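Table 4 source record.
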Amino acid sequence: MRVWKSLCLTTALSAVAMLSAANAQQSPQDVTDAEFPFEKAVLASGLGNPFEIRLGPDGMLWVTERTAGRLSRVNPENGSVISAYEFALPEITSGAQTGVMGFAFHPDFGNGSDQVFVYVTYEDETRTDPTRPDEADPYHDLFNKVVRLDYDAATGRLSNPTDILTGIPANNDHNSGRMQVGPDGLIYLTVGDMGHNQLANWCHPIESQTLPSAEQVEAEDWFAYQGKVLRMNLDGGIPEDNPEIDGVRSHIFSYGHRNPQGIDFGPDGTLYSNEHGPDTDDEINVIEAGGNYGWPHVAGQQDDNFYLYANWSEASEPCESLQWIGPSQGAPEVVPQQQETEWQAPENYKPPLATMFTVSEPIPGCEDFGYFCRPSIGPSSIDFYEGGVPELEGMLLMTALKHGSIYAFDPKAGAEGDFTRYYLGMNRLRDLEIADDGRTIYIATDSQGAVQNAEGEGAAGLENAGAILVYTARDGGTAAEAQPASEAQPAQQPASEAEATEAEAKGGAAAATTSPEGGNAAQPAEAAASGEPASDAQAAEGEAGSGAATGNEATPGGDAAQPPHDAASHEPAADAAATDAPADGAQGGGEPVAGQPAAN
């Protein structure tokens, strides 16, 4: 029943002039390898899985440390790290794709509204996931929320946490968690499909097409927010101009998503996003109000090629009695299966702007469709590059988890446009921040997980684990000002607020709570060997454990040859405490989960 989609994936690495066998495939899209026009230096290291980085109005580089439970500030001049706030995270978050995720500044930060919004995982004893009624299930009362914090410029610390939206679904996989404040002054937030219908969650149905009833909205029951992009007021309320979908207005701005990763607004107000696909078909989407993006009925284009929707929760035999296998291998006859064109796409269906990538037939030498053979890249963030270096102007820049690369795409080219890949080394690239002048780019890297080396082979070791890298434009840049890798400032044990303030003033290595492994006393660091999948279990959606079959995120337990990734996510799975969970990033294709075959 498997038909392979006709798209080309060129996985050549310019550094060694290696050309993948995928080049022979016929496709409307190609990948050209090029040298990144920036010089690299290591700014800071020893962070606990940095997830989101932003240059703040105060001139500091702010970063969430997902598994360390911190929001920290990094001095871009010398790399000193100061903890601005520490969250008390549930113990389970140390290994799953949960923790302290996206954040955004209040639009009037620095002008009287010095506040920061953060997306964080918590335990809520007043709620229960209806799909997990068993209290023995560690995720039955796990949820995500948006917290507002007040910033004191005198101390460099955040305080007064206020919950503005609670009860957002959470799980060990595909939480998404990217946040932006739009040009309209409202908060946009991505929520994944919880990694349902795959890996350890294969018997849970995907709810990406489920919409809330008016009664659920009134009761503040946000169960249907899985697989959605949300839009909310700064107080967490529902905007009056949010789309009314099926007669109900809620926080939902768009739906039908798998594991949306980066979101960013272009200069014309267009909202771009990228999303982990199941082994193939990572997507670039233009997010529109009320849009339906097709998941789980469609991945990539609605063309009946590679992707086939197998609904394990509707099997004619008890799902728990079956052995889950990844989408590349099909499904047993007792599992209902649906071709993409069998879905009657509604008028509000929005096909992707572009996909990354698929093949027309198995690549020679990759018949088993192993993790690195899968065309997906595990995108983990997206940023519109406005200018500073001519060759990148007007491009969407995307970090990726699987191949240690940045991909550039011209959104004006649409579905037929080609990609440029810049291989940056053996790191799982999680997020990217561009300085205002476009001549300095900061990149956050995962603390563990699998990635390709320069020869195109899977390798477990990372060059710069849990780091912030700084890339400066070659022609007249200031890369020399950044510290070489050997001198990068590691996060240190927290000091008092007064000491932290003094250290920051002196430019010293500051008082972060991060240990060299990226953990803290309250939140043990994830074992480096855990191989936590990246959020691309599509590359960023983690592939599960030792061979997750459907994601790009790897989970702990993956090996060098087959990074742990969520079969359809590229994120590594949670730590040893969640060996059944897809890797962090398994949110749609990036990292394998421990004990689970890696998935893209």
